[in-house]
Predict the structure.
Amino acid sequence: MSLVLQAAALGILTGGVYALMASGLTLIFGVMRIINVGHGALVVLGAYLSFALFRSFHIDPFVSLVVTMPAMFALGVVLQLAFIRPLKTDREALSVLVTYAIALGIEGVLGYVFTTNYVELRAWYETASFAIFGFHITYVYVFGFLLCLAILGALFLLLYRTTFGGAIRATMLNRTAAQLIGIDVDRVSALAFGVGVATAAAGGVVFGITNAFNPGSHYDLISRLLTIIVLGGLGSLRGAIIAALIMLVTEDITAVLISPVWANFVFFVILVAVLIVRPQGLYGVRVRDRI
Amino acid sequence: MRRPVSMIVAGFALVLSACGGSSASTNPSPQASITIGVSVSLSGDFSADGKALEQGYDLWMQDVNKKGGLLGHQVTMKYVDDASSQQQVVTNYTSLITQDKVALVFGPFSSLLTIPASTVTDRFGYAFPEPAGGGPAVFTRGLKSIFFVQPAAVEDNLVSYTKWLLGLPSGQRPKTAAYATQDDPFTQPQVDKAKGLLEAGGITTASYKVYPAEATSWDSLALTVVNSKADVVILGTQEPDAVAFIKVFQQQHYNPKSLIETTGPDQGKDFADKVGAATEGVMVPAGWTAAATAYGNSQFVSEFIAKYGGKAGDISADAAEAYSVGQVVEQAAKKANSIENSKLITALHSGTYQTIQGPMSFDSTGKPQGGVGVYIEQWQSGQAVFVYPPTVAGSNKPEYPKPNWP
């Protein structure tokens, strides 16, 4: 398989991981119109929780999701109740500050508990691979991609096949109208925030197996996740998936064809070009500005 | 009118992605204790190295205080975290000098941080002995107060390795080499010099890639190296990318005959914990080893284990380099009979200083002179040992070709 095809395959597989991580971020924005800058730190927290379970009890990182996802869901609900719900005015701007503070708090606690040394989740599938046309595909990426499909599939089912999903979508479309028809928007927001944070735990596991990480790893991560959801369209799950794939495939192909130095630049050129043509992103909904 | 949220978020993301005088203190009264200030990276990319530096400095402080202090002054170290940031390291040294009024300053980790830090310390007239900033750019700014306490200038770190490769019998000598390096003032000069020497020696370059130091994903880059099918691989890495490259090579079943990485494999247990059995055969340039018989080294090793635990092989070279900074300053203070910065600077520009890395002296730019050079260390049976040159390797021989990945 040619190098470009290998890079594209790698981009698709790692893009799935980023789609998983970005899905919670875009869901939270869609429901609450807040920008959760702390989402990267929550992904890293998810990775550390799995790391702790692995180190203490030798629980397989993927299996540990049975524990970490509910725990992170609960944490998300608590964070929403304690820090996001009190924001009544200028939520978009204030949420950036509040969630950034949450990120710094998480980073500080993780640094205290785990030190700032880089760690990695270890499992047999991190280096084991199988060959397709001479290119070895690592099991961890395949498992990560399957996990991504499973969780994103579950999210779609939740959103489009349940009453609660209907309430979420109604809130995403028009918060005030949703309230008027009797939807408890505050409750929906808290639960949606919890779901978004739970997906961060899932993303964190795959991120933690494929990358060395430390408590400060969230800075780079959140910048990438934010660009993904902007390209995909804020609040669009489908957009986050497509944008994540575009980002990773573009970067990987640029890295092998031209230079890694240009990998980010080429992606940002695409991002800017898309925003010029479609300011709302690939799948975003254009909202009329208030005058 | 409100700005589109997309634009706010995009702008914020772009900003995040872009991230990453008074006079020197005079001689305090003879009995007064003194504080030495250091900016260490306790978070961010260099956090593992920063912690090791802190351990080395602390151990030296313990030793010098046991001996009665630095010219009679008990020493206290003051550390501030720079988060591996070039902006923060400048703030830290400014604050240490102007607010904390430390008597002396020691260097941070990496050329990246040493360069901006030394500009500040020089402005305040402080001597700046430093353990880890040896890139060429450190010495070309006309500063007279900086002293790089390692056996050789950084760009020469891989020279021993190239000599060893080119000295192999013609039947075994590699024909092709692949290079990838961070665009970091510490790593790239080493790799570039090695590339020039190997090309001059007839080894063809199969691939050469430079990547941003702030990159966090190296898989596609590692694929480029894999596809080059080069006989040997030379990487200008820090620890996270050093580990990532090895993993991709394992995943792709790519077994070069030799692999050397500028940093990462020198991190002892920290490296072995992440790579596992795949450490076998991996090389790293190193100026220090726990087994060396240099001045005070065995005492350093035993005290280090007593204080921090672990085994000799677990000790990071960073800690040894930091300890050496203290040794050099201790001897310079004795020579100058003063801990005044101007007198230390004058003293350090002449004479030879004994350290656990061997003897060293400094030229007018602070570059180490006439040192014993940087050797090759290789992981063999779970520990890193000197394998070249034979004068320091003893009975250890380089494993060549490197064993296949487990």
The first strand of chain A starts at residue 129 and ends at 132. Chain A has one domain: 3-277.
